[in-house]
Amino acid sequence: MDNVEIVVIGGGVIGSSIAYHLARQGRRVLVVEQEAESAAEATASWASAGGVRRQGRHPAEAKLASEAIERWKTLEQELAADLQYRRGGQLLVAESDEEAAYLVRFVEQQRELGFADVRLVDRQEALELAPGLNERVVAGSYSPADGQADAARTTRAFASAAQLLGAEYWYESAAFAAAINKGYVEVQTAQGEVRAEQVVLAAGAWSDEIAAALGLRLPIRTRALQMILTTPASPDTLRPVLGAVSRKLSLKQLPDGAFLLGGGWLGDLMPNRHSYKLDSEQVQGNMQDARALFPAVGGQRIARAWCGLEAHSFDGIPFIGAVPGLDGLILACGFSGHGFAIAPAVGRCAADLLAGRAVPELDGLSPARMANFDPAQVEAFISDGKNVA
Hints:
Blueprint: E1 2-9, H1 13-24, E2 29-32, H2 44-47, E3 51-52, H3 62-72, H4 75-79, E4 90-94, H5 97-112, E5 119-122, H6 123-129, E6 139-143, E7 147-148, H7 151-164, E8 168-170, E9 175-181, E10 184-189, E11 192-201, H8 207-213, E12 220-230, E13 241-244, E14 247-253, E15 259-262, E16 268-269, E17 276-277, H9 280-293, E18 302-313, E19 319-322, E20 329-333, H10 343-354, H11 375-383
Parallel strand pairs: 1-2, 1-11, 2-8, 4-13, 11-20
Antiparallel strand pairs: 3-7, 4-6, 5-6, 9-10, 10-11, 12-15, 12-18, 13-14, 14-15, 16-17, 19-20
Helix pairs in contact: 1-7, 1-10, 3-10
């Protein structure tokens, strides 16, 4: 049996950020990852839209979002990698007077969370920020420090930086069981058994399977979140990331000119929970929303569409921290489709937590809150089969 100080189960952007920050502290870290590489196809880190945003966050994530947005400014230099990071802002638009009134309160809420630079813009300024918006846009909420990056590049950069600092990675080594025994956590993997003083469960959509081996029923379910890539348009047609109050849409333009569409449209999850099938109506619905808001998208064809398998939590925010009664286990899962942007801050906080330091930034995300969930509602949430083919 191999013995290490800390095992991180999952080599995605969250697991690799945690491993990097632990290795930076000089901890002996082993990452076990079921795929052949970090950010492999169909994982959340491979499929992520790459939005780096603060506005629209749950209050429990606000401190992490503020810390992360500052880290993103210099993250490429820190990791010595091209992350295709662009700080072009995020613009959430209203297409009616009623929606504009909603944005007034929305902006107030963002400022209350500490995002002091978020501001309300009128139609004229919205068009200056994103020329080509449709004629119905009347106002917007603009967060200038937000932006975008390449999720797969960022994940692999964290993994490479962690390994340069001494972290070990076991690829193609799925963890399939765990047990707490005499002050240690024993993890069985495809590459052998390993014993650690502490284990971080950051296995994304498959975290519940490992947790179940420890007798923990995680209140998460898997969703296949859809993404669409178009053929390239003229570069710099769109600078900020676009969203709309009344539309399920996240729209951004990549460096080569292609538009990347997301927003919560769903594919069909296969029963094995490791693959998916695209839903043509969902694909067309996503494209129609993008074309309606930003007509320039209509001049492009769909080059590719895919889904990423995401773990959605019962209350829509992640579980980060210790689990009462399971000594040695730290959760970092259930990010519900919006973990990528805060990964730098999550890594730092988790590493500090494992070092025994106080981390007030995680107070609202503690797994201890699971004890307050209604069991019947949790079971209904987990067994909801709308997104399973």
